[in-house]
Structure formats: C-alpha cells, structure tokens
Amino acid sequence: MGHILARDICVDFPIFTNSSRSMKNIVLRATTGGRIARNAANASCVRSLDHLSFEVRAGERIGLTGHNGSGKTTLLRTLCGVYAPTAGRLLVTGRVVSLLDINLGMDPDGTGYENIMMRGIVMGLTPRQVTARVDDIAGFTDLGEYLSMPIRTYSSGMQMRLAFAVSTSVDADVLLMDEWLSVGDAEFQEKAAQRLSAMLDRTPILVIATHSTELVSKTCTRVIQLEHGRILSDTTVDKPGVLPQ
Amino acid sequence: MRGLPAAARDVADAVAAFRIWLMLAHTDVKQRYRRSVLGPFWITLSAVVSIIALALVYTQIFKVPTAEYLVFLTTGFIAWLYLSSLVMESCSVFIGAEGIIRQVNLPLGIHVFRMVWRNLIILAHNLVIVFLVLFYMGVGMSWATLLFFPAVILISLGAVALGYLLGGLCTRYRDIPPIVGSLVQVMFYVTPVIWPPKLLAGNEHLLTFNPFYYFLELLRAPLMGEAPAADVWIISITLVVAFALAATAFMGRYRWRVAYWI
After folding, report:
1. What is the pTM of this model?
2. Structurally, how many domains does chain A consist of?
3. In A, which residues are within 8 Å of B173 by CB distance?
4. Helix axes of A156-167 and A127-141: crossing angle, nearest 10 degrees
5. How many other CB atoms are found less than 10 A from the CB of residue A228?
C-alpha cells in the first residue's frame, strides 16, 4: 500500500494585506461603487507550487531538496492533505503520517505521559494503542522519572526525544518528514537513526525534505530538487545505503 | 470535494474523531486552571461573585423580592455565560488551532466540537450554583425541568453550526472577532438577563428580533421549573436550522480554503 500521483498540482497562497482582510474595506467598496479601497479585491497570490507532476510508488524514498522557500514544506503539507491543490489532481493512497512539527499536540503543562497520550491520539492512534506503546516510547526517551513531570520543565532536547519517540511509533504507508532530526546529542542522534530506519523498514513511502546531502545519499532512492515551486531535477540515486549509523 | 458532500464529510469525520476533541477539550479546561487549588471551580466562583453583587444592587433598583429575583438572575446569568462564550469562542475555533490545522489533515470539525464540549463542561460546573440556589430558595423541580436537556442539546447543535460558520468567516476576515465581541456585550444589556422582561410592559416587541432572547428563555425556563413557550421552541429550532444551512453552504464552498486563510 502507498502510492502518490500528482498531475499539474499548483498551490497559490492568497496574500491578505490588512486592507483585503478587513470587512470595512469590503463594505466601503460596495458602498462607493468600488472607487475606494479598490485594492481590496486584488488580494495577490504567491504561487508556491507551480504545476508539479510526479508519481511515487511503494518502496521509494524521496529526498526533497532546494533552497529555503523553494516549496519543500508546502509540498509536504499538500501531500498530507493540509492544503488542497488550487489546481491539478493529487491522489495519495494509504495512511499518511506527517512529522512536520515536533510540538504538535503537546501541552507544556501536561506530564510526559499525558503528552505521549495526546500526541498519539492527535496522530490517529486510539488510547489503547498508545497504552500498548507507552513502555516502548518511555524506554526510547530515557527520560525515566521526568515522564511524570510537566514537559515545560524539559530541555528542548528532551522534548524533542519525547516527540520523536511518539511520532515514530505510528505505522504509516506514506511518511512525510521535514528535516528536524538535528537536535540532541550524538548518542541520541545514533539511537534516533536506528529507530528511524526500523520505522522505515515498515514504511512503503518516505518523503523527506532535507538540506543534508549525506542523508540523501544514504537514505533516498530518488531526489527531487525544487526551485521556485517547480521541479528542477528528478533523479534516481544509484546506490541507496542505510541511514547513518 | 466541494459542496454538500464536503461539509457533511467533515462533520461525519469529526464525530468519528471524538477521541481527539474530547481529549483536547478536557485539556483546555485543565490547562486553564493548572496549579490552582479550586481548579475549574474558579469559573463557578467568579459567577457566584457576579450574581451576588448584581442581586444586591438590582433588587433595590427593580424593587423585586430578593428570593424571586435571585432565582431569575442565577438561571439567566448561567445560561447567558454559556450562550455568550459559545458565540465569542466560535470566532477563534480555527484561528486558535493553527498549529494543528497546518500540520495534520484532520476534520476541521474537531476544533468546533472541542469548543462546544469545553463550554458544556464549564456549564456543568456552573449548574452547581443554579441547583444550590434553587434548592436553597425552595424552588421545586418539575417535569418541565427535564426540558433543560433537549434545550441544551438544541443550542449545542446550533453552536456547532455557528462555530463552523463564524470560525471560518473570522479566519478570513480578522475584523469580525472584535465586532462579535462588542455585539455580544451589547446583547447582554438588551437581553433580559438581569432585568425581568415584564418590566418592558407593552414594549415586548423589543425582544422580537433578539435571537439571544429565545435561546436564553429556552435554557432559563426549565431551570425555573417552567416549560418554555411554544414560540420560543419554534423560533429557536428555526434559528438552529438556519445556522446549519448557512454553515453547510459556507463549508461546502470554503472548507478547503480555511488552511490557506490561517
């Protein structure tokens, strides 16, 4: 299971200036026959994704590269269904899990255990499934006693470990990741890489946005380079290795 | 997917994802009062203080018997708190959930249901005061009291529709939340929350076009042991159906745009 088919997809963001977001100007425009606040109608657009077409089959590991603002994150959000394409056709089959923001479904005042439950549920698990995974998650985080304390007291590295552990315990057909693995000490990085590769073994499709050529060469089977929302190059990597150990 | 199927699908998916919004709503209530001794009962306590203060002054102004007025005020005030927070919080259902909406593809309805459920929890806390006052003042319960439940359900359904509608509009037009805020404040004074409607004596038409009046009556009458009048039911149901139709039309067309507006 797991397949992505994109045909000419575009994503245009309306840019609302204060004047076009405001009701006052719309009323003003209506009552003055469009002579005042005329610009309100011209909410300009930014084209973030510009006629992208590609197909991803099960087994592929896609690395999305490109400069800041080239559309990587927007593409990930479009693939996970947050943004419906403004034009074109997108078909994603299989269960999509996105690891875009480590703070998703986190309550700073809740304990580590409460947050494991919350994030797990927001990511689509049932409470029973979360309970079944709690020991595994707790074991991975190495947080021990801290799991009973509010995560507000955690360091950012500790929060990251917790979020990572919960996120990687969900099974997916299509896994979308924004590169956010560069947190934590060397020891954690190594553990994270192992856990991730274990997760990848059971995940048919991975799409990861990254700047790291090392990650791309070791993990990805295919690299899509974006620029200004267009595909600059789409190349197959010859010898995909495993994640850095 | 656009049109009616898009709107219906969102509601159905949101209902199915009940675990998410129940949990988020409970967290909301807990979060507001973490590290405080009284916890959520702070809400109740602040309502008690307002009710006592208002009762002290207005029994003198209106020259009405204290017991009778206290029952009237408490039931109305608690009902008003429920109605006004539903309307005001409808404005921020999507704006406030930006983090979730931009990260995962979940039905938008979970944010609406979360808001309504949170307010139901708070209402349940506040009802403690109502029942204490009713008991203390010796107001008996009757079969009509049970009508409170269908009334709450009807209003909560209306709030779901309003949450979708106002939530979406406010995400697009950021001027609307302050407008709604001021309107609700005005409505507090022109709706018979603290003043008995009979004081209008002959000018009851001032209430005819006030939607808050009907919803308030719908909640207050059962608490006072009376059945709400038939026209109150009819108009309330009509309003809820109108909200639902408007919300369906709006969400059918713009559901997919909300993530872009945030």
Report:
1. 0.88
2. 1
3. 21-23, 26
4. 130
5. 14
Q: How far apart are CA A230 and CA A48, in angstroms?
A: 9
Q: List the CATH number of the domain containing A117.
A: 3.40.50.300
**A219 lies in a domain?**
yes
Which residue of B31, B95, B105 is the best one to mutate when testing the A interface, meaning the one whose CB has the most A CBs within 10 A?
B105
Looking at the predicted structure, is the pLDDT value of residue A241 above 70? no
Q: Which of B104, B175, B256 is the closest to A24 by Cβ? A: B175
Nearest to B224 by CA among B126, B79, B48: B79
Query: What ipTM was estimated for this complex?
Result: 0.81
CB-CB neighbors (< 8 A) of B35 in chain A: 109
Residue B93 CB-density burial (10 A; 0-12 exposed, 13-18 middle, 19+ buried): buried
Give the minimum alpha-carbon distance from A188 to chain B in angstroms, rounded to a whole number. Answer: 25
Q: Which two tokens mark A71?
A: 């559309």
Cα(A99)–Cα(A102) distance, rounded to whole angstroms?
A: 7
Task: Measure CA of the first residue to CA of the last residue in chain B; give whole Å.
Answer: 20
Q: What gap in Å lies between CA A183 and CA A160, rounded to an integer?
A: 7
Domain residue extents for chain B: 3-261
What tens digit of pLDDT does each residue of A153-181 get?
988 888 888 888 888 888 889 999 887 66
Q: How confident is the model at residue A242 (pLDDT cuts 50, 70, 90)?
A: very low
Residues B137 and B129: beta-carbon distance below 8 Å: no
**Domain span including residue A181:** 3-12+53-236
Q: Nearest-CA distance from B100 to chain A in Å?
A: 6
Identify whether A59 is part of a domain: yes
Q: Which two tokens stand for residue B128?
A: 């403690």
DSSP state of B146: G
User: Taking Cα atoms as reference points, which of A78, A93, A98, A100 lies closest to residue A11?
Assistant: A78
Residue in A21, A110, A123 closest to B27 by CB: A110
Whether A81 is in a domain gets the answer yes
State both tokens at A103: 């703070």
Is A107 in contact with B31 (Cβ distance < 8 A)?
yes
Chain B interface residues facing chain A, Cβ-Cβ under 8 Å? 19-20, 23, 27, 31, 34-35, 99-106, 172-176, 179, 256, 259-261
Cα A187 from Cα A197, distance rounded (Å): 16
